Amino acid sequence: NAKNLHFLENQESFNAFYKECTLTEEEKHFILIKTKAELNETAKKLNRLMHNHNITAPQRVLYVSGMLLSMQEIKGKKGGLKPSDLKGELTDTSRDGVLVFNQISEFLKTKNLSEEKRDLMLASFKEISKDPQRDKETSLDKAISMLLEKDSSITKQIFTFLYEFVHKPINESDNTGHLDIMGELYSEFLKYALGDGKELGIVLTPPYVTKMMSELLGVNAKSFVMDLAAGSAGFLISSMVLMIEDIEKTYGKNTTKANEKIKDAKTT
């Protein structure tokens, strides 16, 4: 039952309201499980692609997280990086890896990060631009051959795979919800490098558990959540999802007021 008419603000908010009303909880759960299965399959293909191009296991997490950051829009300045922006040039200032790194740097400058924290992150992401050999054209891997017309750099091949199979689905879907995207990818990398990682005490909590625990704690729009043992931030992701859902129940989905409240929740 609708408690207000916020959903009538615009077509987008009405469509979101209608979709919410027509899906049962069972159907929503099925979509979450299906999306997780698809993400697992994508992670396996991505892992093989990076293995074939000799990207080491420790480097893979940096490549994935860094490249996904470079795809984000820098509001008020420029859009995120796209595969077509990577031209395969080999100068020191326009190599594909350098373009990705510079975009990450520009993106982080717009965030409220201390200079020390930003420099620490950039020192890690520098790995993406370190090896010029990875910016030279090379034969296309099978996993990416249908998306690129000609031989491309290793950097561009990995970037294009992430753009098409991770970045775009996340942006175009409302169903990623409680899924810990980076956690799922990281888990696959761990299996390759360390078995399942349990020998080192590395265990990733499934999204249905983080969701359940966040619900038991009664997380809502006014909550402040701290996870002292945060790894891939699965509990924080589920908590933020519940906070956003609480805001949308009050102000409607995709309404101006809801978007303002969500922005405040993310930056407070």
Notable characteristics:
268 residues; mainly alpha; 2 domains; two-stranded antiparallel ribbon; DNA binding
Describe the structure.
This protein is mainly α and 268 residues long. The protein has two domains: 113 residues, no CATH class; 154 residues, no CATH class. Helices cover 58% and strands 1% of the residues. The chain has eleven helices and two strands. The chain has a two-stranded antiparallel ribbon. Helix 3 packs across helix 7. The two termini are 31 Å apart. The model has no long low-confidence stretch (mean pLDDT 82). Keywords: Methyltransferase, Restriction system, S-adenosyl-L-methionine, Transferase. It comes from Helicobacter pylori. Belongs to the N(4)/N(6)-methyltransferase family. InterPro entries: DNA_Adenine_Mtase, DNA_methylase_A-5, SAM-dependent_MTases_sf. Pfam families: N6_Mtase.
Q: What secondary-structure arrangement, pairings included, does this model have?
A:
Elements: H1 11-22, H2 25-52, H3 57-70, H4 96-109, H5 115-125, H6 127-130, E1 137-138, E2 152-153, H7 154-172, H8 181-194, H9 207-216, H10 234-251, H11 256-267
Antiparallel strand pairs: 1-2
**Multimeric state:** single chain
CA-CA gap between termini: 31 Å
Counting helices, strands and paired strands, the structural category is mainly alpha
Query: How many domains?
Result: 2
N-to-C SSE string, H for helix and E for strand: HHHHHHEEHHHHH
Strand order of the largest sheet: 1-2
Number of strands: 2
**Share of residues in helices:** 55-70%
| Total of helices | 11
User: What amount of the residues lies in strands?
Assistant: under 5%
Overall mean pLDDT score? 82
Low-confidence stretches: none
Major sheet attributes: 2 strands, antiparallel
Report the C-alpha radius of gyration, rounded: 20 Å
Q: Shape from CA axes? A: globular
